[in-house]
Amino acid sequence: LQLTFTKPTNAQVDILNNLGQLIAHRELEQVLQASYDIQLGNQTAGLYFVRVTADGQSVQRVWGKALEYVC
Question: What are phi and psi of 28, to 5 degrees?
Fold first, then answer.
């Protein structure tokens, strides 16, 4: 996940599962640009929601984790 703001901003990044349960949270202070690795190794395959909140506004996007097959 790549984040870019027009001015230094306090933000938070939340990852929620398809039931709306919070599974990851990160606070970012005075960030202008940030990279955030989404680690879902111990989560099941399916849809997840990434919510970024900054300056009182939230943006939410859907992110999917595919099934992994080992042969």
Answer: -120, 130
Cα–chain center distance at 26: 8
SS3 for 22? strand
Q: What pLDDT, on a 0 to 100 scale, did the predictor assign at position 70?
A: 53
State the residue for tokens 């230094």. 8
Q: How far is CA 47 from CA 1, 7, 22, 54, 67, in A?
A: 16, 31, 13, 23, 11
Q: Identify each DSSP E strand in 1-71 by its residue range.
A: 2-16, 22-35, 46-54, 57-65
Q: Are 11 and 3 in contact (CB under 8 A)?
A: yes
Distance CA 38, CA 6 (A): 23
**pLDDT tens-digit series, residues 25-70:** 999 999 888 887 777 778 888 889 999 999 889 999 888 876 555 5
